[in-house]
Specification:
23 helices; GIY-YIG endonuclease; eight-stranded mixed β-sheet; 6 domains; alpha+beta
Amino acid sequence: MADPSTYRPAPGSIPAEPGVYRFRDDNRRVIYVGKANSLRARLANYFQDVTTLHPRTRQMVFSASSVEWTVVASEVEALQLEYTWIKRYDPRFNVKYRDDKTYPLLAVSTGEAVPRAFFYRGPRRRGVRYFGPYSHAWAVRETLDLLTRVFPMRTCSKGVYNRHENLGRPCLLGYIDKCAAPCVGRVSVEEHREIVDGFVSFMSGHTDQVVRQLTRQMEQAAEELEFERAARLRDDLGAINKVMEQQAVVLGDGTDADFIAVDSDELEAAVQIFHVRGGRIRGQRGWVVERTEEPVEELIRNFLIQFYSDAVERAQAEEADEKQRVTRRGVDNFSHNPPKPGAAVPREILVQHLPAEAGEVAELLAGLKGAAVDLRVPQRGDKRALMETVERNAKESLRQHKIKRVGDLTARSAALQDIQEALGLEEAPLRIECTDISHIQGTDVVASLVVFEDGLPRKSDYRRYRIREAAGGGHSDDVASIAEITRRRFLRHHQDRLAVPDEESEAQTFADEQVEEMSTDQRRFAYPPNLFIVDGGLPQVNAAQKVFDELGIVDVTLIGLAKRLEEIWVPGESDPVILPRASQGLFLLQQIRDEAHRFAITYHRQQRSKRMRVSELDGVPGLGATRRTELVKHFGSVKKLKEASEAEIAEVKGFGPRLAAAVFGHLHPGAHDSMAT
């Protein structure tokens, strides 16, 4: 690995014009490609203090041994050249949006002499037309089962086809008329190709012609008293309509558009795209990629360029394959005309946020399509509602991705081992606890404590704390709050290792420590954690370590996890521990921290809502916090309290006629004056 200072270009040698740059390693392999509106300003960022760089960027500059650049005439040319070089060199530090392998596709092997339709997952190949992706595997099989009634094309594998060709008799699908049986010559190769062309045309969206043709044939059969044939055509038409109904109409104006949304955290980003053609959702795709320091706007820009450039390239390859087959068959044209490459880019591209350099991106997309492209953020109406749906799908995709990783036993074991090695622990941290503070400008300060055992949440051991005002009248800051929660958690640490204390001593501890603990059960912690995490950087970690020193705790490892770069801070160390971005251990630590944050936020909202509910009772003489809470609890809400009379208020435990009158007068100003009048 080379020091970036050894290959830093001389000052003033880098031009200030737009261009594209490449970082190469010792073997002259390109490891990163980027673009810049000003090469001088952009490249200077890579050669600043390396401790301020994003971990992925830091690893890249140390892996590289040289940097070179190419000046271009405009920012649009820079975007085009960046994409070309990424495709050519496949640099390992660039984020690449590959087709999501989790979504099934319906594929047609148009490159074969006798094409077949089949269920498919995996990377796309030349000579195959793909339709979808579908949300479920059963949706592909159901669509294929319905359409082979109308388009009885081959669906069997090559081995099955050859076997029945040698046997001279068709398979079961051939006997029930769901396959035209080209294997035994029931139809010729050319006739089967026409069936395939009709299938592909229908799946490409040309449905009206098929519906009209089936309707005309059904009516003609009925007029000729061929009722069995008419009934079969009626069933075929029903199958076609069922396939069309599966693609729900979401936009009544027949819009052709793609809807794109992103959800991200510090480590990863989920991208979702909905393809709407003719007002119907024709497909959905999703990607989860590693997140770098780039903002969401740049992430969307890079996605748009890569995705649509790849789509046009695939369409061009399919068009070339189709032309070769036409030439090979010796005909000028046939029933299926493949879509033009520019059709891969819709007229409208609606995004969650406008990408960086939106004007240049729109110009590049227009060049790919061969016509103007409307790139914008939907503001209202059905399109805005659909965008919100895409956003929810992106959030859910990222959440499911995290759950899948955390729930995998192998991944959890690797994560715990990563943490053990990074922190130099004697054994894997099987029990991990994490605390987080939540407040709004120092009000309603609360804290959470979550517990993970064997890499999975143990919700029965979750705790939540309400931090009260300090003696001086002010609220504790985050550092002081972390110290207070740490002290509360580990005050009875040595006793907790041996026994579970009774509820009376626990309640007394609450009062002594000015901390209210709320939990999902009444049990105390039976044993301490192997690893204790505080949400924050070095100040929070050092505050918790002081508490550890006071209480004599030496058998629990303490760390802090900072949000900005996911740095792991160890007490007394000036530099953080950096785990690789792809580390399972870092992912687990982030998951634990996020769960602590979620639990704290939930409790904070409950406390804030509770405070706001009784705020109308502030200022009543003689009414303290305890009686105020008792009053609202008795009536259920402030609204019902307002409907109560003085006598009903006086019936509440701890209330007399004088206090009841004060409450009633506060809620109904002027009521006593009007009664006196």
